DNA sequence: GACCGATCGTTCATTGGTGAACTAACGCCT
DNA sequence: AGGCGTTAGTTCACCAATGAACGATCGGTC
């Protein structure tokens, strides 16, 4: 037809693609992190559990892990199942509360955590490398605006 | 010990938290999109399949769907299983290639696609609302830098 | 001390994704 | 025509996450 009268109405056009670009980039970034820890026999989910355990410096109840991981309890049950099978974590009974089960790091778990965090730090730097200070700052601002 | 000699070495410090902020925000955004289409009996994965089918305007081989979805073929097999159970898609044999199976939109599928895309557009605008033009532009730039 | 509501971990079914192994069919190629 | 490498879809086992249902236990409160 003929040209648009009035405003270009690009309002929606800018936004639409951007959301999915955002998600695709996030997916790619996550894949890079995952790929960095996979060779160590770890996943991001497993490493996160090890990290909370190492951070607390004492065995934590599974519900505490669920809370920090922002996930449901049943997920932690299975994650700890696998970590236990890997020999990185051990379930210990809580003497004060017989409902509670605490996850404790094994020696292998402590080692795996150190290695995993190391690999993670490296790839994190690699990812953020191409961003100069200004880029980083405006990205931070955009994230804050999005996470309303 | 004593203060750092030389450079502040903030280089890593800025980057480290940022990667995970990025991923967390992405997760939150994705959850909002998911929540927008869930009430319609859809998921983002299902809607994407419907979208490719509607876009092509003809039944597509499952491998074509896998390619566009950037996922493995076995995933599409199961996704189409569920979509077929929902009555949104039908499997049709390909007369030219007997190995191939094409996914075809049903009438219900076409309807669901329209509704889903509608809901999606709305929530997309809501998400990008708090970003002014400058924010959007610098976000775009940052994404380009990250998606190396 | 007995009941009752909340909390803790587990189990199960479902969704979504991967990768390996397998069968059927296609296309060459000589 | 026969043989062989490739492609298409499925199946299976696994990882990660959700949500509902359930049994055990803990804390009041009555």
CATH topology of the domain at 35-130 in chain A: Arc Repressor Mutant, subunit A
Oligomer: homodimer
Q: How does CATH name the architecture of the domain at 35-130 in chain A?
A: Orthogonal Bundle
Order of adjacent strands in the largest pleated sheet of chain A: 1-3-2
Helices and strands of chain A, in order, run as HHEHHEEHH
Extract low-pLDDT stretches of chain A. Answer: 1-13
Instruction: Determine the mean pLDDT of chain A.
Output: 89
Helix content of chain A: 55-70%
Largest sheet of chain A: 3 strands, antiparallel
DSSP summary, beta strand count of chain A:
3
Number of helices of chain A: 6
Measured by residues with Cβ under 8 Å of the partner chain's Cβ, the largest interface is: A-B, 38 and 38 residues
CATH class of the domain at 35-130 in chain A: Mainly Alpha
CA(first)-CA(last) distance of chain A = 40 Å
Structural class of the secondary structure composition of chain A? mainly alpha
């Amino acid at each position: 037809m003929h040209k648009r009268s009035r405003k270009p109405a690009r309002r929606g056009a800018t936004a639409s693609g951007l959301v999915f670009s955002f998600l695709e980039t996030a997916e790619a970034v996550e894949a890079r992190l995952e790929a960095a820890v996979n060779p160590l026999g770890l996943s991001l989910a497993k490493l996160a559990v090890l990290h909370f355990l190492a951070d607390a410096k004492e065995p934590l109840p599974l519900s505490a892990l669920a809370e920090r991981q922002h996930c449901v309890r049943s997920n932690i049950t299975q994650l700890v199942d696998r970590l236990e099978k890997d020999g990185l974590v051990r379930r210990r009974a809580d003497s004060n509360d017989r409902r509670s089960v605490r996850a404790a790091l094994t020696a292998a778990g402590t080692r795996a955590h150190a290695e995993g965090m190391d690999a993670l730090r490296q790839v994190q730097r690699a990812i953020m490398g191409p961003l100069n200070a200004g880029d980083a700052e405006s990205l931070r601002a955009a994230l804050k605006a999005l996470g309303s």
